[in-house]
Every structure is written in structure tokens, then in C-alpha cells.
Amino acid sequence: MTLRIDISGLPSERLRFAASPLAELTAMLHVLAEPGHHPQFADWAGDVWAGLRPELAERLREAEFLWRCSQADFLIPARPRPTLAEELDDVDRIDDETYVTAALVTTCGSNRVHFAASSPLTDATARERALDLAQARGARQEAFAERLLADPAAVRARVRHTLEQCAEAFFDAAWAGVAVELATDLRLKNDLLKRQGIGAALASVSGAVALAPDGDCIIVDKLLDKATVAHGTGVTFIPSVFGRPHLVAVHAREWQPVVQYPVAEPSPSEPVSLEAVTLRLEALAHPVRLRLLRTLARGPHTTGELAHAWELSSSEVSRHLAVLRRAGLLTARRHGRYVRHTLNRPDLTTLGADLLAAVLR
After folding, report:
1. For residue 205, pLDDT beyond 60
2. pTM, whole model, 2 decimals?
3. Rounded to whole angstroms, how far apart are CA atoms 23 and 300?
4. Beta strands in the chain (DSSP E)
5. d(CA 45, CA 28)
6. Residue 264's closest CA among 207, 347, 346, 218?
7. Widest CA span of the chain, in angstroms?
8. 337-347, pLDDT tens digit by residue?
9. Do 189 and 201 form a contact (C-beta atoms < 8 A)?
10. CB 341 within 8 A of CB 306
11. What is the C-alpha separation between 223 and 285, in angstroms, rounded?
């Protein structure tokens, strides 16, 4: 499963490496929302939460769907600017329909949600679908979606104000600390691009990013099968310190391709038993379960949502979920009348290292 970015005929100068304050702030917000996914930043996240004013903490919780399980496309800019204020100004220039659709895709928790046929701002059916999807994920998401659809201008202004408050509360200090590391990485990438070409630059980004043999396509190894085109617009690569170990890709048709990559490899994981590793490998040895995990990687889902997304019966999905739970890759929690299944990311993301450690131990 890969994301393929068509760059045939693209001049080398259209492949750009640049730091983005907004993208790094988004990565920090993701860490604050999911500190368990980033143990190396657990102390930082704890200190930030302890120092936040209650009002700002509540604002972050009410809008966390924009960055928690996935990132809204407008938060990963294709044309990074020197300052956060300039990048927020660029976001303000996006029309309401584009902004709302991007926010709802994230709020609804899956990039398989599309509103291409009609806008939820103007079409009642699309609006109800968006609200139903948000409702299945809890009252906060439903309330956010309702406010966004009722008054997009007010929600947009509130989100910007929240991000500006984050700058004062913790981002400016953290950005000063990571800017040198980002600049060092960018010098390396741009030097490789200039001296050795696109292939060498991409190889230095991540082992999951490569140039196709014919040179016409960038291949990003992710659990999805998608394709996008960079003709005329180019591709932007944004380094991130707080984003590690994630590799984030903006690939929706109406957006310029962007890849946010970690500047360093994640810390090694603690070894687990060979029995546990074997059980997980057996659970993953089925294409349907891999598809379900691809969706669950975006956030918690109910059995019915997974069945609808992949056009399967609920009973078939339930059987596969049971196998994944026995392997320790999922947890299930009831929220009202919904039972949501959540991916145990640490156990999944460290599986390769766990297997090697178990074999060599």
C-alpha cells in the first residue's frame, strides 16, 4: 500500500524543503492530544498542560479533532512562511467550503469521507451525513461540526485565536528550541537535492520515501493506496521534531502535495516476548484486517462505520476485530450506545523492532 505522487515533468526547483511554524505547532498539538504516542515528549506535554490557562485548555479539547488522529490539510502548508502569523493569514484566505470540508474530514476521523458531490454547507443530505459521522465519535465532535456548519466564520476565527494563544503559551519557546535542529536538517536536504538530485534527497527523508525507478513518481510507503499529481504546483517536504515518528502526507486532489517528515528516527522500543510478536504477525496476515487497521489508524471507529467504509458485513468485521483484540492491537470501549475500537499504536508501530529483538535475543 503506497501513496504515489506523480512528478513527471516537474522541475527540480518545484521540489522544496522548508520549515513551517504552523506545521510544527500542529505536531505539538498532536503530542498534547496523544502524549502516549510520543513518550519522548511526555514530560514536555505534562509541563505544558500544567501551565495552560483553563480557558485555553478547554479550547484545545474542543478543536482537537483537527490534529489529534490526523491533521487538517490547511494545518500543513504547501508554501511555508517564516512566521506563524503569515501562515495563519494564508489559512484565512481559504474559502469557507474548502476549509469546512477539510475540517469535517478530520473531525469525522477518516480520509475516506468525501463531500465531492455536494457541499455540507449548502446541501442538507451532505450536512446530515457529516453530523451523523461526527456524532458517532462523541458529543465534542458533534458539537464542533454543528458549530462549524452553522457559522464557519466564527469557528475559523476561534480556531485562529486558539492557535495564536498557543504561540504565547508554549509554541514560541518550543519553536526557538527546535528551529536550529530544523535548519540543520534543511541544509542537509537542500545540499543533497542540489548536488545529488531528487533520489538522494528523498532517501534522506525516510526509508518510507523513495523515487520510482523511472523518476516520474515519489512513492510514500503508507497503509493506503492513493495517488495524486504535483504537476505545476510541486511537492513540499517539511521537517518536524515534534512530529516524530509520524510521516504525514497531504494528498487530497484539491491540495498541493505536502509531506511532513521526522528529522530523527524514533527511540528504540522495549523488547516483548516472541509469543506476543507471533500473535500480532498472525493477526496482521490478512488483507481485510490490514484495511481495518488503516482506517483505525485515523481514529476510533464503531463496527458499523468500519463495515460501511469497506463495504463488508458487520459480522465479518466483528470477527476480524476479535482477532486483532486478542493480539493486543485493539481496545474496545463503550460510549453510550456506541462501542468504539481504538488502535494500540505503540504495539503496532514497534512490531518490526520487536520481531528483530525477539529473533536475536
Report:
1. yes
2. 0.73
3. 23
4. 2-6, 15-17, 209-211, 217-221, 226-229, 235-240, 248-250, 258-262, 301-302, 330-335, 338-343
5. 9
6. 207
7. 60
8. 889 999 988 78
9. yes
10. yes
11. 14
